[in-house]
Amino acid sequence: MKAYGDMEHRDDPKHETVDEIARLVDAVVDGVVTDEQSHRLNELLGRSVVERRCYLRCIAMHSALKSTAGNQVGRRIEELRQRLERNRVSQPDLYPRLVLGRRSSASLLRAAVVLFVVSPLALYVASRSDLARDPAVGGIVQSPGSSRQRSVVAADHPSSLLDIVRVVRISPQTLWSHPNESFAMDSVVRAGSRLRILEGEVELLYENGVNLILIGPVDFVLHERGGTLRRGGLMASVPQAGHGFTIDTPNGKVVDLGTEFGVMVDDFGVSEVSVFKGIVEAFPSRPDVARDGKIQLSEGSALQWNKEMVKSLEADPRRLPVTLASYPRPTYSHEAESNAIPIVPGGIMADSDFWTSLGETSRSADGVVLEGAPVQEEVPYLVSRDQFDPTAGPLTVICDIRFPQLAPDDVPSFSILTRCADDRSQMDRSWRDILSTCVRCNFRSANNETDGLLETSTKYERDRELTSISWGGFRRPQQGVAYRLVMRDDGVNVSFAVSHREQQLIAKTVTCRSLFQGYKNHIAIEGWKGGKVIVENVQIHQSKNEDLPARRSTRFDERVATRREAEQESRANELSKRIPSDAKLVVADDFDAPHLNQNLWSVLGDVHLSEGAVSLGNERDPDHIDTFHPRPYLLSRKAFAPEEGTLFVLGRIEFDENYLNGYGGSFAVMSRCTDRYGEGPEWAVSALSQGIRCNLWPAATRADHNIEIHEKTGPNSLTFLRGSGLKVDRTSRCYFFLMEDSGGRANITFQNIADPAISQTIACDTSDAAPRSGLIGFESCWGSRVILDDIQVFQRPGNPTSDNRTPQ
After folding, report:
1. What domain of life is recorded for the organism (predicted)?
2. Dihedral sign computed on CA atoms, order 249, 251, 257, 263
3. Strand ranges in 125-200 using DSSP code E only, listed in sequence order
């Protein structure tokens, strides 16, 4: 048989071929085609494009019969038959002979209805010569009940993809973003389908037994073995058969190992996974996590990350359902507001003990005046004295405000804040007077004469600026107009509405998600720097949902190390083998005495003995690490000059369990240092004013900066000398360290106690401007304490005039 490309070219089929194709198509339409006829039709269609064109015309004719069906079906069929017959007479080689007399109009209509469904597929298949001639694809036409040939549908869509997921539950309050793209109960959802829900829940069941609840608002793209969560939340229960079930997020992925877990993605670039049962593996798309990019999470733990940070949390069942049972989600209806507990029922100062002031505030006949100070550029606040956790029940804050006087160049604004701290950032930045952490909804003027903006923001740390999303479509604040602002916050979902109080049709509402968990949960209202805003009324409500499970109270620092970890921590410091035998031991302390040895040590900041070791820092909120707060130090009483003999400083440390949260905790050993803090606007103000600083920073934002050597030659200087990466095992927090300082060159080694193979050494020359002598110091980061133990300091006699720098 000739190959398709070698077939002779023919413009027109023979008359008998045209008639044969027409009869075979009739049999297909009537549903009476035999195996022999099916084989013959496929054989004809495989000859050349001419036969396939003839086949298409037959199919087009029957499709036309369907489209002309109606009250005048008989007349239209007859008109069509006559028109096609005239064309066949004038061009007999291109049109098949019609044999309509043998079937009734009703049977033609039934055939047309069938072909209306199958003809688009037939048109597509018949036009593809590669399908017609490729035996691997199967026949184009098959007879009823035939099992010897595969249908084209099965060829294009493997059976594993036909029914991979079904919709098994839709909550009554579910609203689809696009109703035309919605799915009904018991419908099939195929790979690549996108499900977008504004409100409510949709439960999916995969073929492998995985149950998945999508919690609105959500944007989800379904995959065969998981899906991509672009926004929103979901809860999954994965049996053993679903091992490897994967949820992708915009900045990483989560792989299940047989468990129950939840995933959320907010509008500020933050992803979060919570494990309620079993184990999952998270793969944040960040260069500073472990080299294989994998973080394993067990039951009760959670992880939150974006491009700047990885933060360990406890799984909070109030942010996602613990089981796949029906879960009462909080709503934002006005009816719910009426049933909420009135924290402030109305009147800005109904309870004078409720608020505390930051900046200029005063009483007036109309309410409370928040007056900014343009010279000091200070934003005024009223901050609640008590704290209100929105995950315990959705918060609703309603404010009625007016701007009494505005100039053309003014940029007025007003904000409502939840999940906020009660102090300012106090950084040398444009946002220094904003509260240090918060979720903030702001109504303000844009940088032109007419436009206004509704803006939602999250401030994660004291030393980090606001991350914001803003929307236009509302006129800028007007002088004397009474506005009503309503912020609702359930701990994840935030909505913000601004309207004219007297003209409710002038209104705009925006919504977003913020996964930020406040270190504190105050409520605040904020004025603007350049002028006054009068707050006439404030109402605060919290809807208590008794069905929500209580939050776990276990703190990171209450957990006890396992016996295996204790055994690993008690190992002898293997780095001691690197100390020369002629080095003299000059300081040694195992801190087992009841009090700190005042003859050996002095302290700066929160440093104390704790169970036979030194605690650099106090037990604090495990989520709050402040790199700008003065750091705690243990300092030697004696000063040492390395040029008189190389110094070797040996010891052991254990990080607190929150050491990878936010910017992360750190530990540094210093030589040639002073006992005074530095100066300046940057984070160096929290470190000592001078010295050689060797630092371990496991949560470094760059993978090549886990270990660093810095040089401080003055109070407001900090010079980076050398950095390197170190694999971080989240399950092991204990390290040995050895610092060497010869006066012209510094060397630092950190070694993981649980896995000695995880070890890194870096070295570099120090400058002539570096101090020549000073104290030995040990430093941690405020908010993430470090346990320090088994300190030994050796000094090896050397030539005081020698230059110990690396030869150039």
Report:
1. Bacteria
2. negative
3. 165-170, 175-176, 188-189, 194-199
For residue 286, the model assigns a pLDDT of 62
Q: How does DSSP classify residue 631?
A: P
Q: How confident is the model at residue 802 (pLDDT cuts 50, 70, 90)?
A: very low
Does the structure show a pLDDT above 60 at 321? Answer: no
**C-alpha of 387 from chain center:** 26
- CATH for the 334-542 domain, from 3.40.1170.60, 2.60.120.10, 2.40.50.140, 2.60.120.200: 2.60.120.200
Residue 200 — left, alpha, or beta (φ > 0 → left; ψ -120 to 50 → alpha)? left
H-helix or E-strand spanning residue 395: strand 395-402
Which H or E run contains 113?
Answer: helix 105-126
- When computed from its CA atoms, the radius of gyration of the chain, rounded to whole angstroms, is 37
Q: Give how far the C-alpha of residue 416 lies from the chain's centroid of Cα atoms, to the nearest Å.
A: 24
For residue 372, the model assigns a pLDDT of 80
| One-letter amino acid for residue 380 of the chain | P
pTM of the predicted structure, to 2 decimals: 0.51
Nearest CA to 233 out of 269, 278, 264, 200 is that of: 264
Q: Does domain 159-314 have CATH number 2.30.130.40?
A: no
Torsion angles phi and psi, residue 671, rounded to 5: -125, 165
Which option is the CATH number for 568-797: 2.60.120.560, 3.40.1580.10, 3.40.50.720, 1.10.3660.10? 2.60.120.560
**Residue of 78, 111, 1 whose CA lies nearest to 46:** 1
* Residues 748, 709 contacting (CB under 8 angstroms): yes
Residue 21: its H or E element: helix 15-30
